[in-house]
Amino acid sequence: MTKEIQIKELATKEMVAAALVETPKKEIAQQLIYCGPSITEIGLQQFSVFKNGIPEHATLIGESCRAVVLLFKPISELATTREKINKKGSRDYQLYQNVLKHTGRES
C-alpha cells in the first residue's frame, strides 16, 4: 500500500468520524419549540417541542395565520422569545396577539 492510499483512507475515516459527531448537533438544531398560545382545536400546546420541524397540523393553520408558523423557534431562543412576547410593540408580541385574534381569544 502506498503512502498516498494510506493518507486517503485516513482522511476518509476522519471525515466519517466528524460526520458522526456533527449529526446529533444537526438534529438538535432541528428541534423547534412552539412559543405561541395553545390552540387546543388542533392539539397545539404552548411550549411543545417538535423534533422534525413544524408539524403538519400547524402548517395547515399557518396558511390562514402565518403568525403560528413564525412562533416556532429554535429551543435556544426560548428565553429571548418569552421576553419579546411580553414586550409590547415587539415583533413576537405582535405575532402572539395575531394568533390570539385569529383564534378568537384576543386580549
String of helices and strands: HEEHHEHH
Distance between the termini: 74 Å
How many separate helices?
5
Number of E-state strands: 3
Q: How much of the residues is beta strand, in percent? A: 5-15%
Sheet having the most strands: 3 strands, antiparallel
- Based on Cα principal axes, name the global outline: globular
Structural class: mainly alpha
Query: Mean pLDDT across all residues, rounded?
Result: 81
Write structural notes for this entry.
This protein has 107 residues and is mainly alpha-helical. The N and C termini lie far apart (74 Å). Strands 2-1-3 form a 3-stranded antiparallel sheet. The chain has helices at residues 3-30, 56-62, 66-70, 78-85, 91-102, and strands at residues 32-34, 49-50, 72-74. The chain is globular, with a radius of gyration of 21 Å. 56% of the residues lie in helices and 7% in strands. The longest helix is centred in the N-terminal third of the chain and has 28 residues, at 3-30. It has 5 helices and 3 strands, in the order αββααβαα.
